[in-house]
Amino acid sequence: MAELALVGDALSALLADIYPLKSECIALTDAPGRVLAEDVSAQLDVPGFDNSAMDGYALRAVDAGKRLPVSQRIAAGVLATPLAPGTCARIFTGGEIPPGADCVVMQERVERDGDAASVPANIPAGDNIRQRGRDVQTGAILLTAGTRLEAAALGHLAGQGVVKVDVRQRPKVALLSTGDEIVDPGKPLAPGQLYNSNRPMLKRLLENFGAEVVSLVSVPDDFAQTVALLQQAAEDADVVVSTGGVSVGEEDHVKAALEQLGELNLWRLAIRPGKPLALGRLPNSGGEARFVGLPGNPVSSFVGAWLFLRPLIGALLASPALASLPEITACAGFATSTGPRQHYMRVQLRFTPEGARAEAFEDQNSGVLSTCITANAFAVIPPDAQVKEGDQVRCLWLDG
Question: Which domain of life does this protein belong to (predicted)?
Fold first, then answer.
């Protein structure tokens, strides 16, 4: 029997000779979740002028402790005029600091009497002023290539007046479900059939990883049709993902079809769950598509998607944030032992004053998909290991 491959070797085979996809220019309003293809430099200081951090009174610090005439009123968006010596200005949050003023006193500390205001003493220069360029300075790198454009990054770009942005094209994925026993929800189940839980689960994961699922295909237990559908999927997509059909059964045709059409780089992994997994390449008119054959077991597919599809999509997007899962060392809230395969246990990480604690779900059977709903990490238990409660374990944070 062939030796089982290690996860690291499988990833190396999967990501070998990967090149980022081309870029495209799109509207910022269409860019949520997309990945920057180029660095973006700041064209403006942020803020663009000294402004007040609160409602209050702008004055010269040397005039603190005096009763000062109020010489102007400055709301946000109003052009300030130079502050007359020996006066103060009524100012509101975001209002421009008038030339000559160097501090702001919050309104709660000021006694207003008609057109004059008594301000407290010992107000330091710069107090309650947001200096020009405090957040961003013109010419600085605003965002680097590979950044995923989520809420704050989109706001950062909009603050520069950006309306269009260069992003990586989304990897196109063809998602194939194999097996006559797999039925789409909504259809009646015959004896021995199962509803297709992998398809919606993997589609959502792939979209969260930054891919575009361009086709959803059901593949019957027939070798010729498996070959034809794999070939068509390779023409439609950058990545072809299948579920099921990669084991050793007489009706498991995907592995043989892949070997006929293209190249099988690796088959069967030393992991639990998810041993039957195929990685390879399928030729197409544009070059080749990467192939990932996940097990039909939904829990194994879930684990395999995080371990292999996420870094593959990250490499195609040239996104360091997607290249690997964040690692957290946690205190084991469980005891376990492993055999010859590395175990990826579904756990909940809880963060306490004493540090992170990993609580494992009692039933780690690969058929229990319900544990994946609330799991927020995988505890990685090496082969042939004994873990006692309280031991330190390496965990992969499921951050998307």
Answer: Bacteria
